[in-house]
Amino acid sequence: MTPHSLSVVIPAFNEEAYLPHLLDSIDVARRRLSGGADTIEVIVANNGSTDDTAAIAHFRGCRVVAVERRVIAAARNGGAAVAVGQTLCFVDADLRIHPDTFTVIADCMKSGRIAGGATGWELDRRSAGLIATTAAVRALTWLARVNAGVVFCRADVFREIGGYNENRQFAEDVQFFRDMRRAGKRRGLKTLSSVRTPAVVSTRKFDRHGDWHMFTMGLWILRNRSLDKTVQHYWYDKDRRF
After folding, report:
1. Which domains does the chain have, with CATH numbers?
2. Which of 14, 114, 179, 238 has the least C-beta neighbours within 10 A?
3. Is the pTM of this model over 0.90?
4. What is the pLDDT of residues 68-78, one digit of tens each?
5. How far is the CA of 208 from the CAs of 172, 205, 216, in angstroms?
């Protein structure tokens, strides 16, 4: 039986500080996969980086694709456009994945009964503000029946739903998960909210803006008088502080 193939897509803009740690964790997970590391391709969607992101990715043996439009949905879609795996896995550059990630995903997807899912996540440090934020986010995602971490999807289902919505500057991952669930349901396939191999998420936004900042973002919107402007500063301008 041919091993199930996976394509890992990493959207990246100026991620030279974080990308090596993610790739280290990917190497560990690849070595644990019984089907062999060669059944996994790693694609870095270089989203206009001006640092050594692309050079690091090339050096580490990743396939690098240039995506000009500075929207994370476009970067994810750009990486997926060249992927050859039966299952597409999307992971942000500032995460570290669980050692059993690929083993669990491959086992789930080989059954042919799963549309996709997510691994789940945890933050890389703890504080009162981060515990409160985590609780709030988990409650919201539970209600919406979505999750994050490493998000994976059958390649044919991904193409059916048209990938990530590039008109969204944020929450495109929420829409994608819900679209994947609906597409799977039409085919009689399940979508897994968590496979219990949580990715470790960087707290760099909290390090920059404070551990309680998610609860005060409404004030930023009022100050900027624009949701779009706040989104641009928060997600796409790493040097801007609020």
Report:
1. 6-203 (3.90.550.10), 212-242 (no CATH)
2. 238
3. yes
4. 999 999 999 99
5. 23, 5, 14
